[in-house]
Specification:
With 156 residues, this protein is mainly alpha-helical. It is built from five helices and no strands. The longest helix is centred in the last third of the chain and has 32 residues.
Amino acid sequence: MSKTTLKGYILATVLIIVGSMTVFAQNPDYKRGEVHEKIKAEKIAYFTDKLDLNEEEAKKFWPVFNQYEKEKMEIFKRYKETPKAYTSMSDADADQFLKNMVDIKEREFQIEKEYVSKFRKVLAPKKVAGLYYYEREFKKEVLERVRHRMQKKTED
């Protein structure tokens, strides 16, 4: 798995967390699940539009994409389980960390390989390529909105 993909996972998580914090600061009654649902709805609309999915394609694509996202989130959870304090690691901890890191990266690669194939069964190759392109673009747009909100908040 490339550094860019790992950065993408980290960026997505940061976006969700920072976006949630921004929303919570504005409205303490806002539920975390509502934030995730809003982002999910935006993503559905964004991809449906950008990929120009017709009704039949969307019907086949979204269940596959939702499973893909679920599996990617399980991988991200494994990253969170890794030790944070490098300086206090023993050699045994470091060995385990390295083994886990390789296992996680292998699983990420397996997921990507598996889902490229699955997506190609429900979409034309150009739309599958577009999915990966627009996934990055969507993350950039969300990050920019979060940055803008945070900057606006600090100016107020």
